[in-house]
Amino acid sequence: MVTLPIEQSKKYNRLINILAIVIPVVVALLLGIRQKVDLGSWTTYLPHINAVINSATAVLLLIGLYFIKQKNVSAHRNVMLMAFTLGFIFLVSYVLYHLSNDSTSFGGQGMIRPVYYFLLISHIGLSVVVVWFVLRAVYFALSGQIARHRAVVKWAYPIWLYVSITGVVVYWLIAPYYQH
User: Fold this and answer.
1) CB neighbours (10 Å) of residue 21?
2) Any alpha helices (H) in the chain, and if so which ranges?
3) pTM summary value
4) What is the pLDDT of residues 19-70, one digit of tens each?
5) How confident is the model over 102-126, as a mean pLDDT?
6) What string of DSSP letters covers 103-132?
7) How many Å from the N-terminal Cα to the C-terminal Cα in the chain?
8) What is the distance between the alpha carbons of residues 22 and 131, in angstroms, rounded to a whole number?
9) 3-state secondary structure of 3
10) CA 147 to CA 121: how far, in whole Å?
């Protein structure tokens, strides 16, 4: 398994800080593009795939917690790296969908409308914040800085789990309004 050298921590911290800013900014800019790129009709399936990815990520996060509570560090590391990989795949898929498809408006009425928007806004806001925490958690784990890893995971884990679960809930709420 890869182990990152601690003596290069300044370089890695700088990279994490840059990525934590660049990723949300690039996603926001791509979402703001009015002229969509025709990547084919297959992209209309990406929200459904993203919901599966978010569901799998949430399950992996729970399994990862189970393994670390059992002191099975190797299984914990493997599961958490799978969750991290799914997060990267989700990000690519999300960008491809919004680069090639118009955003879908929520059509729900009544009390479900403010619930939907609360979940959506908290999901988006926390998805921006969680990038920095997750990147730091992964770096600290891979560099063997376990005390620092534990400290950042106290924030990263619940935020990441919330973002994964609310991503699925938001999907189920808006899914009836997708154009096919």
Assistant:
1) 13
2) 9-31, 46-69, 73-100, 112-142, 146-174
3) 0.89
4) 999 999 988 888 777 888 889 999 999 999 999 999 999 999 999 999 999 9
5) 93
6) PPPP---TTHHHHHHHHHHHHHHHHHHHHH
7) 43
8) 10
9) coil
10) 32
